[in-house]
Specification:
Blueprint: H1 25-49, E1 60-64, E2 70-71, E3 77-81, E4 85-91, E5 94-96, E6 110-113, E7 127-137, E8 146-154
Parallel strand pairs: 2-8
Antiparallel strand pairs: 1-3, 3-6, 4-5, 4-7, 7-8
Length: 155
């Protein structure tokens, strides 16, 4: 007579071993989880440790629109500077008064000009537009002035 019962279990063995605890399965699942976690940690470490090289001079965080961008003629034009810098902006040869750089949050260093009625530029012309930002340090007087020029295309 066969010592195994009709359900395939040996006599006296009333427990069934779950598939996750069978020899080899739990080792493979644990190893896979460790490898996946290590891959995630490595990916995060590689992306965070890579330094992005900025083409902007010290004190300038960014410009809007981006260099060589294609944008509508009503697009605001401006800069983001580090705290302690006061910019002047020239768009397509027109000097923008500081009082009209009001489309950004100046407390955060955002100075944007939005073309419109009653402003020095009511609407940007179509085609290639170049802008120049000159900024002088207000707090760190030993730092040199920054000058940056970029161009974009309006349609």
């Amino acid at each position: 007579m066969n010592p195994a019962g009709s359900d395939g279990r040996r006599d006296g063995d009333d427990r069934r071993v779950p598939w996750a605890l069978r020899r080899g399965v739990s080792v493979a699942v644990t190893t896979g989880a460790i490898v996946a976690a290590a891959a995630v940690v490595l990916a995060v470490w590689l992306t965070r440790s890579s330094e992005t090289v900025s083409s902007y001079p010290v004190g300038l965080q960014g410009v809007v629109p981006a260099p060589d961008a294609q944008v509508p003629r009503q697009t605001p034009v401006g800069v983001r500077v580090d705290p302690g810098w006061e910019p002047t902006l020239v768009i397509d040869g027109v000097s923008i008064p500081l009082g009209q750089l009001d489309a950004g949050t100046t407390q955060l260093g955002e100075y944007f000009f939005a073309p419109g009625e009653g402003k020095v530029i009511s609407q940007l012309r179509s085609g290639k537009i170049c802008a120049v930002v000159r900024a002088a340090p207000v707090t760190a007087l030993e730092a040199p002035d920054l000058v940056y020029e970029w161009c974009f295309v309006t349609f």
